[in-house]
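Notebook entry, structure prediction.
Reason for the run: the old model in the group folder had no record of what sequence produced it. Starting over properly, with the input documented here first.
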Amino acid sequence: MMTRPRFLQVHTLTSYTAALLNRDDSGLAKRLPYGRALRTRISSQCLKRHWRIADDPHGLDRIDGATAAFRSRELVTRKVIGPLRDNFSEDVVAALEGEFQVAVYGDKGGDRASRQTLLLGEPELNWLKKQAEDLAQQASDDAKAAADGAQKWRKDFKANIKTMRDGASLPAGLVSALFGRMVTSDPEANITAPVHVAHAFTVHEEEPESDYFTAVDDLGEDEPGADTIQETELTSGLFYGYVAVDLSGLATNLGCDTGMAGSVLHNLVYLIAEVSPGAKLGSTAPYGRAALMLLEAGDRQPRSLAEAYRTPCAPHVGPAIEALTNHLVALDQAYATGEERRAMSLANETNLPGAERGTLADLAEWARTLPERAMP
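New structure, fully documented this time:
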């Protein structure tokens, strides 16, 4: 009898050549020291952003019942108060905006630079917009009345928006249900992320190159040659990626809708395998797909397989799969946790222990079944 799965784990190996996938504050590739070797790194924030905004047949926005969410310091300004300017005086709008900024962003909400970048779902924003419209109408073009009404409204804001959230489907949007959110001005609005994403890193030492390039002035006949001379960093590498999903946590965040949770996992498997992170799209075309994807479902605490690469391996898929296999065999022998496994690989010799081989579509469909099995 199969155990009830609590977690889905996703391991990938993906290759990129001559790219700058994720930059630090100085414009260089992000790095990670690991096993006394410097690796090229892709941050989890970068990976999650590309997955959540992907315009893709398997994009998260294509899932039935999904609601949008927006991350910004300008949510009140653009999504809540901005639409009022077409129908109400600027004095009334300005009186409301200050109170709404503080209600949503906290005591420092009046100062844009001090606001937390916040993620709110479309249902929450629509509710706030309706609240602002009602207050504006009640003020009858009287700025003082608008300010007084907004102050009274703000006193009950947390209780009222909690009631709205309790009665709405995905009030914070699908992205919040997957990747969580933190709201310092309203801790009760915090959402625990059921999808945990590790920073990806190269299984070998970094392979950087300083790329010297020029921009030639096509019309500069008097002084032919380069009009601009610059340098940028490019890197190549085979990256290990790791994602763990708390299946019951995902279903709970989705209102115990195991059907939607299954659709999320189905699409997420595709996004992880097919959607590339990366800047400098026009000059590096940093598009790659996973050469290996291993899915594991089990009832024990997840564990990354990054330890397989503490000693850097050769920068090729074959040796990387061999290192992963050897580490997985050692874990199985020591812990015997009995995960179910499915694998997709571009290497014919791949033989991961206990893993049933299949296509990406096979893996995605298998992942879809897990939430139903995970719930009591």
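Summary: The chain has a mean pLDDT of 93.
The old model has been moved to the deprecated folder.
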